[in-house]
Amino acid sequence: MSIPVLKLVCQGCGEEFPVSPGHFAGLGFRHMPKRCPTCCDLRQGRPSVIVDRSILNLYDGVEIASLPPGEWEESRGWDKDVPACKLTIKGDRYGASWSGRIDLFALRAPEKGDIVSIREMEAQHRVKVVRELRSTLEYGSVTVEREIPITTTEEEEPEAEKVIRTRKYLVIEPFDGPATSRLVWAEAHTKTTLKGFGRQYWASITGDPVASWIVSGGYRSGRAGTTGALAIVSEDRPLVVEKTGDISGEEVYQ
Known about the structure:
Blueprint: E1 6-9, E2 16-19, H1 21-26, H2 37-44, E3 49-64, E4 73-75, E5 84-90, E6 97-99, E7 101-106, E8 115-136, E9 140-148, E10 161-174, E11 181-191, E12 201-207, E13 211-218, E14 224-233, E15 239-245, E16 249-253
């Protein structure tokens, strides 16, 4: 389903930019914006400047069956922003060796049983970074990047460099209609022991969900780990956690 979008002309740069009237009405605004997101970021002195934003996918009529554990926190990019709730899920919750990140945004913390619309978004931000050498026990000296506000001057950080960062996130909004799918959170745990002593089990996430977002983490040795999946499922497109070893069987989410 497409979202109704208007094309407005920015009073700052003169370029056209898309606006969703329904989204702004939901935020409580009576008037449409006069400036594009890039000009607004520059005018307000935000720590990063958005250069492009797009909707990758839209899922309507999703009933929330379960969400990842964690506290929703108030999030504001600027002190005059309408406050939103944010929940971030990263693979580091499962161990030192990890990958994946899921950022969820909502005007209020969603609850089990809510029927919502979920927008999968992609945004490109112009930021400044400073590259530094750090020492690690496992890899020796490595180069890391530290993000700093785009407004930082050359005198303050002479080594800073402007780069473009691409970020994806999910926006959860109320939906006025019946549920056609469900949002679920599932985890697959794996554990092995040296020389086969003790309990050993393996699990993997399979199936063909409508959409899924994955994080994972575990011990650096690889002997234990967990994969977490936030997924939109339906009866004909389930997510399955398959288990083998000392703990066998499967869990089907649909």
